[in-house]
Amino acid sequence: MLSQAYSALEKLGRSVVKNSKRLVAPGSEPESSSDTCSFGEKKVLTKEEIDSAWKRVEESSVKTLPNDLILDELELDTARFLVSAIVRRHIEDNHSFLLPPNAISPAGTWSDLSELQDNELVYIQSQTYRLPSRTRIYLFLRNALWFTVPALRFYLEKSDTIRAILARDEGNSFGLYEIDGDSEMFGYAIYCSGSYFNHDCDPNVRKERRGRSMAFYAKRDVPPGEELCINYIDLNDVVKVRREALSKYWYFDCSCRRCARELDAEV
Ligand SMILES: [Zn+2]
Q1: Cross-referenced PANTHER family, in alphabetical order (predicted)?
Q2: What average pLDDT is seen over the chain?
Q3: Burial level of 70, CB count in 10 A (0-12/13-18/19+)?
Q4: What digits encode the pLDDT tens for the residues 188-240?
């Protein structure tokens, strides 16, 4: 089913990706936004406005794509990621009894994912232009899969499943590198258990990618009661850069002992 869904995406993708100049780097703002969901100059959206934007796209026809529905490469990658998550949920919902334990996903089940922090509101409020991007991806997926993989319609008729995944992707996913933090990121994944590690700028746990899995190792002896923490950002950065990155992408102000020590030293 997954290969069938991927092939439907590629087919629709080839027909609508017409302008490679629309390629958007993570964190950069696109030059224009889709008419499918536009908010003009308004900078901070409310939860109700975000809900109604999704409602509007849910109500559009599955038979015709909006003329301006062109996904850039990043959006197409996101669409593929979403398809893998939807197919995984479908298997869990309908066929899990056929599978041996842990065959669904060593990364976690749908209910594990649902329990992670929902970052939709804070993410869209900080990067408003991502909302039209996300609704475009939803429309694209729905149109690509509605007739080609009807078993997935249940997850696409409403936007709930797509929103739930995207809301947890941000702030919970792990970048996948050839060498951790020292090479170009070639993908990302959500490992539900791993998402429970908090950040520390002097972490006592290191993460190591093993193929498609992520392993976690203690870096030193950890006394009873000490929290196990990993690092979300490059530890070689200075305190100001680290704290800005954590605030921007993980929505918290780091108050770890290393940050406190280095902030004191700056005064
Ligand atoms: Zn810190």
Answers
A1: HISTONE-LYSINE N-METHYLTRANSFERASE SMYD, POTENTIAL PROTEIN LYSINE METHYLTRANSFERASE SET6
A2: 82
A3: middle
A4: 788 888 888 999 999 999 998 888 788 899 999 999 999 999 999 999 999 99
170 CA to centre of ligand 1 in angstroms: 20
pLDDT digits (tens, 9 = 90+) for 103-136: 555 567 888 888 888 989 988 988 898 999 999 9
- Distance in Å, CA 228 to ligand 1 centroid: 14
> What's the pTM?
0.75
Residues 83-106, mean pLDDT to the nearest whole number: 75
What the block records as the tokens of 65 is 């794509």
CA of 251 to the centre of ligand 1 (A): 13
Residue 112 CA to ligand 1 center (angstroms) comes to: 27
Ordered structural domains, the chain, with CATH: 1-9+47-196 (no CATH), 197-266 (2.170.270.10)
Token pair listed for 121: 């509101």
Q: Cα–Cα distance between 49 and 55 in angstroms, integer?
A: 10
Residue 248 vs residues 33, 123, 127, 243: alpha-carbon distances, Å: 22, 9, 10, 8
CB-based neighbours (< 5 A) of ligand 1, an ion: 201, 254, 256, 259
